[in-house]
Amino acid sequence: MKNSKGHLSYLLELNIAMVFISTSGALGRYVDLPVPVIIAIRAILAFFFLFLYCKWKGISLKVASKDRLPIILSGVLIALHWLLYFYALKWSNVAIGMLALFTYPVITSFLEPLMLKTKLQMIHWFLGFLVLCGIYFLAPDFNMESSYTLAVLVGLLSALAYALRNIILKTKVSTYNGSMLMCYQSAIAGLLLFPALFFTDLELIISQWHGLVALGLITTAIGHTLFLNCFKHFSVTTVSILSSVQPVYGILIGALFLSEIPSWTTIFGGILILTSVVIESFRSYK
């Protein structure tokens, strides 16, 4: 059984990962480039940073033949997730984009028992429902007949891709280093989207270098590596529900840097999400 000090350190690591990853919302809105170009450069920069880090730390990049297909598939899924998520951000705002994505804990709670043959726990259904209630109050005024409809739909598809990627990698994080796994995923995503760079003016890309470097280093290389490492200590569903605090962080960052001030209903929704995080923290500790 994990001691209390170790458990708290794992929860702290997860929350630090969430803060880093939460910068994706504000950065996705800030960088003024076509979405495929943003994701291609984000992935390429993340691969560069992670490759250097693995070499510096002496982390092996060797992959067993039986694990190549799952890692390749996870790279395709992360590329799809990033693309759809950033389209949701571009077509709406930080709150709607992030909240549509954060249906993925609920999706995970359904998929994990089916794919990993784990026991279905009723508490996860309840906490998933609590998160959905929080999402409703965070964005109660969006109209499905408005321009936000497409953003919500692609956000849900992004959530599905994210949930599948996390479940696939759950079985690999005990074997491979998180930085190494993220290095390969970034390489695959960058390779898939590299052709998009030929259709964008180089000077325009250079003018956005601050946001692109932040996406590649802070959001992806650091944030997602820490996030993958959390799977060593918690189930995929537990990590998914605990990480539901990410929209709260993201909305706060959006309010600070983009002046997208949340309403009182948004604050109430955030409280519901944080409640689910606290409940799952104590439950996972026991």
From TrEMBL:
GO cellular component, one term: membrane
Domain called EamA: residue spans: 16-138, 150-279
Record field: transmembrane: 12-31, 37-56, 68-88, 94-111, 123-140, 146-164, 176-199, 205-227, 239-258, 264-282
The keyword Membrane belongs to this UniProt entry's keyword annotation: yes
Record-linked InterPro entries: EamA_dom (IPR000620), EmrE-like (IPR037185)
Keyword field: Membrane, Transmembrane, Transmembrane helix
UniProt key word Nucleus: no
Pfam families: EamA
Protein name stated in the entry: Threonine/homoserine efflux transporter RhtA
Native species: Kriegella aquimaris
